[in-house]
Design brief:
Layout: E1 5-16, E2 19-30, E3 34-39, H1 45-53, E4 60-65, E5 68-70, H2 75-80, E6 83-86, H3 98-102, H4 104-109, H5 115-131, H6 148-160, E7 166-170, H7 178-193, E8 197-201, H8 205-211, E9 214-219, E10 222-228, H9 235-243, H10 249-253, E11 266-275, E12 279-287, E13 291-296, H11 305-310, E14 316-321, E15 324-325, H12 331-337, E16 339-342, H13 346-350, H14 357-362, E17 370-371, E18 374-375, H15 377-391, H16 407-420, E19 425-429, H17 437-452, E20 456-460, H18 464-470, E21 473-478, E22 481-487, H19 493-500
Parallel strand pairs: 3-8, 3-9, 6-7, 7-8, 13-20, 13-21, 16-19, 19-20
Antiparallel strand pairs: 1-2, 1-4, 4-5, 9-10, 11-12, 11-14, 14-15, 17-18, 21-22
Helix pairs in contact: 15-16
């Protein structure tokens, strides 16, 4: 039996200069169902989300709510219609409590925060948390003290509390462990049972197949295929529609191929690296031409390793690049020594959102583009165009603001910026987070070519297939310590997880 129709897009079109982001898109979202929307970066998913959120106005077509044509001149109008969007990059206020974040829209209407208002917010937030099955989460806890997974659930709770009827989730588990992801899926399924329409946008195809009732594939601004769960669709089927050609997912994600195992001299040497309260006594090295992986659960300390090596926080121990010891807390020394760092927080610490594609590409190498004290525009253009071509980055123009690109294309620009510096060591933290299967394959190929040319690469990742298939050596972390190092055929998901779940008391 078909559930009531909540939101429908009919022939919706959205044009940007030189790009048709949505081309007569028609799609329906019903109550009490999970509808997965998948596609490569630049396929139009983000634009469709923004149209439903009232953040982007379409150029044509109809937006229907409960069968009636409507317009959303602002996000507030969309929210008033019961549509809520949880974007991949969270927007919580880290200095506030769980309850204050959940009730923030109401607090804003009533004149802001006060001690009494904060107490009331905690009480008011409790039923929302219980509705989502996370009633054990204390509303008085500061959000800054929560794990990423818990913060994700708080963000969902804030949106759900606004009488949401259609909930859009954008890559909701891109930084979560398998156990944390399963808790998220429980919450999503619970909302479905309560009659909420779920629009689930994700590049994780296996989870999509297990979770969703309907699947819509977007490519080049259009819906190119739609399936029901009963169609017994496979990941290979979805991928072939995403990229417009047959792609063997098994070949990309189950076979360890062309991983270099002969290296040059040591480029990076880390000895006894310690960040108090985060990790301690981390030691390893990376050779010229090597891709070295780091794996671990979210609380392992791995997510702070890149910051520490680059000099962004207090540390003890030593970090050497080509035999030169780097000063702690001095990122400029790391840059001068030849380190390029691509952080996981794309929007917060990576992309310069108000600046253009070209400006982001050359931002770390300004001296290289100066001629007589002025920026050499022709050289900037040719360099940017070169990297856009190498990464197959989808942009309308070089002066396009990077904030208007999809997440995956933003990541490609940030990676380009690091490579423009011609580094000796490239540190990548979650390098393919939020990037589709086709773009991932392209980036892996580029990284292997860079390694073959002698670049040393440190890949810190939560995606185990990424570590297994594309690194020569890997170390696993748990509870702030290195629990083991693997190489060659010993790098497999079972071995990594065994080490990543190994407690400190079991270390030998």
């Amino acid at each position: 039996m078909t559930q009531p129709l909540v939101v429908e897009l009919v022939d919706v079109t959205k044009n940007y200069p030189g790009v048709k982001a949505m081309n007569e898109v028609s799609i329906q979202f019903h109550a009490g169902e999970i509808h997965a929307v998948i596609g490569e970066n630049g396929a139009g998913k983000s634009t469709m989300m923004n149209v439903m959120a009232g953040a982007t106005q379409p150029n044509g077509g109809k937006l229907m709510v409960d069968g009636k044509e409507t317009t959303f001149p602002s996000p507030l109008a969309s929210q008033a219609a019961g549509i809520g969007v949880v974007y991949q990059e969270l927007s919580l206020c880290m200095n506030l409590t769980v309850g204050e974040n959940i009730m923030l829209p109401e607090l804003a209407k009533r004149g802001g925060l006060s001690p009494l208002a904060s107490v009331k917010a905690g009480h008011a937030a409790k039923p929302v948390l219980e509705r989502l099955g996370i009633g054990r989460l204390d509303p008085e806890t500061p959000v800054a003290k929560l794990s990423v997974a818990q913060q994700q659930l708080v963000e969902i709770a804030r949106v759900v509390n606004q009488d949401v009827r259609l909930l859009v989730l954008d890559e909701p588990n891109s930084a979560l462990s398998p156990a944390e992801s399963e808790k998220l899926f429980e919450v999503v399924r619970g909302l479905r049972e309560q009659g909420v329409s779920i629009v689930y946008v994700s590049h994780h195809l296996e989870e999509v197949l297990n979770l969703a009732d309907h699947f819509s594939v977007m490519r080049d601004g259009q819906i190119v295929a739609s399936f029901e769960k009963t169609d017994n669709v496979t990941t290979d089927t979805l991928v072939s529609h995403m990229v417009g050609r047959d792609v063997a997912v098994a070949d990309q994600y189950s076979t360890r191929t062309s991983v270099q195992d002969v290296f040059g001299d040591t480029v990076l040497k880390v000895d006894g690296l310690t960040v108090p309260g985060v990790f301690e006594d981390v030691s390893f090295d990376i050779a010229k031409g090597e891709i070295r992986g780091v794996a671990g659960l979210p609380d392992s300390g791995k997510d702070y390793l890149g910051d520490a090596i680059f000099g962004l926080n207090q540390r003890s121990g030593t970090v050497e690049v080509n035999g030169i010891r780097l000063s702690p807390n001095r990122p400029v020394h790391s840059i001068n020594a030849g380190i390029a760092y691509i952080p996981a927080d794309r929007r917060g610490a990576g992309a310069l959102l108000s600046m253009s594609v070209a400006e982001n590409t050359i931002a770390s190498s300004l001296k290289r583009f100066l001629r007589g004290g002025l920026l050499h525009r022709k050289l900037i253009r040719s360099t940017t165009e070169d990297y856009i071509g190498r990464f197959d980055t989808k942009v309308a123009a070089l002066d396009q603001a990077i904030a208007t690109l999809s997440g995956g294309n933003q990541q490609k620009i940030i990676l380009s910026r690091g490579l423009v510096t011609e580094p000796k060591l490239l540190i990548l933290h979650e390098p393919t987070r939020g990037i589709d299967v086709g773009a991932k394959a392209e980036i892996y190929d580029i990284l292997k070519l860079l390694a073959a040319d002698g670049l040393a690469i440190l890949m810190i990742s939560s995606e185990l297939p990424e570590i297994v298939l594309h690194t020569s050596r890997a170390l696993a972390m748990a509870e702030g310590q290195v629990t083991g190092q693997l190489s060659g055929a010993d790098i497999n998901e079972e071995s990594i997880m065994a080490l990543a779940t190994r407690s400190r008391r079991h270390l030998t």
